[in-house]
Each structure stands twice: as structure tokens, then as C-alpha cells.
Amino acid sequence: MEKGKSIENLFARYLNNECSPEEVEELLKHFVVEKNNELLRRLIRESMGNSVNEETSNSYEIEDLLNKTFNKIKKTIFNDEKKRSINIMQARKRTWLLAAASFSVLLLSSTTYFLFQQKKENHLIVSQKNVLKIKDIPPGQNNATLTLDNGTTIMLDSSANGTLAQQGNTDVQKLNGQITYRKTDLAMITKPVYNTITTANGNQYQLTLTDGSKVWLNAASSIRFPASFTGKERKVEITGEAYFEVAHDATKPFKVEFKNKAGANEEIEVLGTHFNVNTYMDEPEMKTTLLEGSVRIKNADGVKMLAPGQQAWITSKGIEIKNNVDLEQVVAWKNGFFVFDNTDIYTLMREVARWYNVQVNFAGKVTEDGFSGKISRNVPLSEFIEALELNDVKVSTEGGSIIVGSKK
Q: Minimal CA–CA distance to 288: which of 301, 271, 275?
């Protein structure tokens, strides 16, 4: 009895957004046991009874939701016992869906956790009825195109491991899905030799420059750089999004150049640091986020310094500094996840479009509410869409495009 009471308290704490990931895992383990099925049913029923607007819901709908929610939870718990790798990120805001529905979303799969930040009260979410009926789209992959100084292009996913080319006094080598530039014993080349690595939608790639600096390219991005750094600085040019871990060299500052929406050059100067640069033209702002070290951002309007945890927004009005940025969310793509924190549907679907290489259109009324959660970038598109559809987002297809609307 005391143990049951403890589980009841734990369940209540979860609904109040007070559970740690370890406590949520304890809930999962408890409800794996068959004899605890009735307790789970009762807890779900009680939570629904406290949340459902009786004027708009009849007992049949409630019982139907209870059964479907219970069955999904039990099925997911059974699968999770095999995988034991549930990813959890608690929502930061204490606005919730109908408790039973949010709990079923939590347990949707071992790679998916999604919570919808509901702004309206007395809103009933019914079980999903229409799953996306299209050929599934796999997640993005590790691939890019290397363009050498003479214009020759190399598709990196199909090229064999080993030395791909010699650029000036540098060998271009591929190993385990990454590109590394290594200086040879040849005499120093005075004229810079430039290479470009480009990722398409649905692709990402990693490379190591000759100075030891590491670069991760997100989808629909590029980096142009000298095969070997000469002179008094190390300068690269990017489009799209890239994460940098810059090798320290106080005698040669590292500079990242990109164009803003007006076509003017922006420059980031560092000595040794970890930072992320998002310069997608279809995003409202271009952002530079510092994780460690120091960064100086320079444009025609002046110079701004960034400290760790800060983010610079490049806008038509100049450079704006944001403090206490969610660093996990910023670099989630590099770590293999989507992370959302009250993110609007348009921003969310732009990430989906780039990663799954799919056209996204919006039709009719679209929700103004925000989404928060953590989803692996390794799941197919159908699994991502299933989480959306459980949260009142209507998804359909037309030709090769995804049409996003609202079920409301």
C-alpha cells in the first residue's frame, strides 16, 4: 500500500512538472509489471476526470481515450524494456495538455519525447486517428560535396577512405566519414589554394582544418577555406549553419566571414573557442552563440564582444546581445537532436524541411502555440509527424510536399 501511494505521488508530481528524468524512469519500470495495470488505469482516469470539460465530452469519448492511452502506454513500455534508452527533457513552462494525453506522448517511443505548450484551458486531445499515409522519408545522412581549387567536385559519401586529393602542400584525407587536411613535407605554397565543402538539404558533415580546428556543417550549408593557412590570420567563409571548435593560436586569429541579409560582410574573430553560427537566409535573425572562449563580432555598425552563454543577433538594426541562452538547444543539431523550447510551428518546420529534404507548405489556420521537446534526428519523418499529430497539428501531402494545418 505504501509503495502504491508512493507511485501515486510520483505520478502526481510528474503531472505538475516536478519529476526528474530518474523519477520518470522509475514510473516506467513500475508500470512494466502486469499486476500494476489497474493502478495505471486508475491514475489515468483520475487525471482525465480532473481535466476534461464535461460539457464538451461524453463518457464514451472519455472511456475511448482512456483505453487508447492505456494501450499505447503499455505497448511503449514493453518496447522500451528492450531498448532502455528513453530521451527526456522536461518542459520548462507549467502549461500542460490533458494529463493522460501528455503522458502518452512522453512514452511515445524510446527516441521521441514531445510536449505541447498549450495556451488555452479545457482543451481535449483525442487519440490520433489519421497517421501520415505517404512513403516514409528517412532522416538526413552524412554527406557533402568537396570542390577543389581547380573546380573538380568529389561526392564524399561515395569516395573511399584515404587521400582524395593534394591541394598545394596539403593532403585531403577521408577517414570514417570525415575530412581532414594535413600538411605534407612539400615546400610552402605562397598562393592560397581554396576548397569548399557544401551540404545539401538532408546532409551534414564534419571536417578538420590544417590547424587542427574542427568544423561541423549542418544541412544546406557550406564552408570555403584555404587548404593551408598562411599569413597572419586564419579566415574561412560560411553559409547556413556551422559549429566550430577552434585550435588556439594567439599569433593567428581565427576569423569567420558570412554575408548578412543585406549582402554585406559580417566577421567573427576568435583566438580559441567553441561557438555556433547560424546564417540561414530564411531565418528571422542570423545568430552567433558562444559556448566557451571569447568572440568579437564586427560589422559596419561596430564591434561587440561575446561571453560564454551569450548570443549575438545580426539584424538590420545592428548587433543585439542575448544573455543566458539555452546552449543545448543551439547545438542540438550537432549532437544528433532536435530540441525545441516553446518554438513556433514555422521555425520548427524549417528545421524539418532542411533535415528531411522535404518541401513544407502551410494551409488554413495554423496553431500559434509553441512546442517544447527533444527528438532524435535519427528517426524517420513519420515518427516526427506522429508527435505533431498528437498535438493538434494536421499534416497531409500534396505531390511531394507536406501540408501543415490545424485540427482545431
A: 275
- Cβ neighbors of 177 (< 8 A, separation 6 or more) are 142, 206
Are 270 and 282 a contacting pair, CB within 8 Å?
no
13 vs 16, 17, 24, 122, 326, CA distance in Å?
A: 5, 6, 10, 20, 25
This model's pTM is above 0.85: no
pLDDT at residue 60, rounded to an integer: 55
Q: Where are the domains of the chain?
A: 1-127+336-408, 141-330
Fold of 1-127+336-408: Phage tail protein beta-alpha-beta fold (3.55.50)
- Check: CB of residue 113 under 8 Å from CB of residue 89: yes
The fold adopted by the segment(s) 141-330 is Jelly Rolls (2.60.120)
Amino acid at position 4, single letter: G
What pLDDT shows up at residue 253?
Answer: 92
Q: How confident is the model at residue 117 (pLDDT cuts 50, 70, 90)?
A: very low
Could you tell me the pLDDT band of residue 34, with boundaries at 50, 70 and 90? low
Cβ burial of 246 (10 Å; 0-12, 13-18, 19+) is buried
